[in-house]
Amino acid sequence: EVRLVESGGGLVQAGGSLRLSCAASGFTFDDYAIGWFRQVPGKEREGISCISRRDGSTYYTDSAKGRFTISSDSAKNTVYLQMNSLKLEDTAVYYCAADPRPTPCMVVVSPRGSGMYGMDYWGKGILVTVSS
After folding, report:
1. Cβ–Cβ contacts within 10 Å for residue 127, how many?
2. Do the beta carbons of residue 34 and residue 54 sit within 8 Å?
3. 66-93 residue pLDDT tens
């Protein structure tokens, strides 16, 4: 059974940092692209960052550039999202998702429609709240 489990969310003050983790199981971790997404209630899901386990390439959307860093630990089958300089507008439910195809990371985090992404597996999400 494929599972993706996010952890590390919570409440943080603006300007602070959090590190989200995405623990993967049930599939060959090194064959996948893993993306991080977020969604605010009432708004479309937004792609943030991606790491390709095939070649180690990474990609960040404008929302994440310069503040967030994606990384992975193959021994732990875990992908991390280090979030620094958090802003109020970063408040959202954060999801990790996996794509088994050799999809470029830039495509992984680009919506195919209204908040739709071509990812095969999704975690349940974790809430990040940034307070003033």
Report:
1. 12
2. no
3. 999 999 998 999 999 999 999 999 999 9
